[in-house]
Amino acid sequence: MKLAIIKPPLPFGWAPIAPPILEYLAALTRKADPYIEIELINTSATPEAIDRLQCDLASISILTPTAVPGYRIAEKLRARGIKVVFGGMHASAMPEEAKQHGDAVVVGEAESVWPQVLQDFRAGRLKPFYHGEHIPLDDMPTPLYGLLKGKEQFRVVSTSRGCPYNCTFCSVKPFMGAEIRFRPIEHVVRDVAAIPEKMYINGDENIWWEGFEQRAIDMFTALKGSGKKWMGFGSLRPVLSPAGSRMLNAARECGMLTAWVGWEAISDDSLKAYKATGKVGVDRERAIKTLKDHGIDVSIFYMLGSREDTLDDFKRSVELCDRLGVSMHPSLVVPYPGTELAKQYEPYMYKDLGWEYYTGAFALFDHPDPAMTAEVREELFHKTFLELLSLPRIFRHMFRIPLAGFPHAHIISLMSQLPIRKGVKIAYEEWKKKRGEVREKRSRETR
Ligand code: SF4
Predict the structure, then answer these.
(1) Ligand 1 lined by 205 (C-beta under 6 Å)
(2) Is residue 446 predicted with pLDDT exceeding 60?
(3) Cβ(28)–Cβ(142) below 8 Å
(4) If you measure from the C-alpha of residue 276 to the centroid of ligand 1, how many angstroms do you get, rounded to a whole number?
(5) I need a labelling partner for 393 at 20 to 30 A (CA). Which of 79, 213, 290, 322 fits?
């Protein structure tokens, strides 16, 4: 039996990151049945692989912006008699929809049901739905690093799952649950050691949790001998906790170069509207300075154009970038299916914009301010992003990256910002060409 594990193409082209589900699901498969032949396909890197693919079963993992290309791939494979199983956050939020395009759907986390899926397939009795449970993470296999033969430069390590907060826009809690489940530290050390490259990404939603700072310190201390550099998403509240300084020193000493920070909203009003309680009331600017004082560079991710945001927020985000000396990555707000925000915005959604528009570059809902039309928000988003990625700003940022990270943090910053700048320029030109067609779709009724 041969299994293909497929990641559909990303909306903005190839990124140098090995999609973690590929090598991890491969490891789960090997654990369940060592005799299954496995092929991994990252279609962003090798789109032609689908046309020549021969296998018995294909597993396609979809996020909302990759759902439509994922369904197209399924259609091609099923026409050749290949059975298709969908999984991932979008399939979990929209299982009935995914089932229309595949033979089975794994809803939720795969670990507890994947051996059963494989067994049922072999027996010719695939069920339409498999519901994964939130099980303890004390038996996760090391991903089969190296099985993906492409140009991917970064592998992703997972150290925990789940989140106790309730940010309305976030898919993590519906998918992974409210309880934080930690992996044993020795398993994290084992997986980091197995990564062939000298740099990796910590793929957790949060690399350090409020109330669990000592756990983070213990993990970073155990990773000190890895000799590898890394980046990951970190929340700001633990940075300012009494243990924050020790935690950041330990992170720095085990190779942390850059903290990616979910800033989410420029204004406090929007942050409150998102119910982002882990962030409301935190002196966010002091936390960023603290990170940099400890030798860790910062990249901020945030959303623009919510129904509470104003036109001024676009401009204020650029001022924030200059004031803090960080790189910033905006997107327009996306009310992902299955989230509270999707329910709240339901009456305002443009119903004819399909999942392929859920990329963060399109305005998907009506705004109460008549000056903030969808096209104004989209144009401002592209212009703001390009302003944040202007060459003078990218090079100025080089001098504001903590010296402790030299040269890796500087190289990483350039390696990421320049291609993103190129990608945003292309996306902006494509948006200009498509704006008439999108305007037409939007001119029909909202949901
Ligand atoms: S955005 Fe972060 S803090 Fe908020 S619910 Fe999602 S994972 Fe938790």
Answers:
(1) yes
(2) no
(3) no
(4) 7
(5) 290
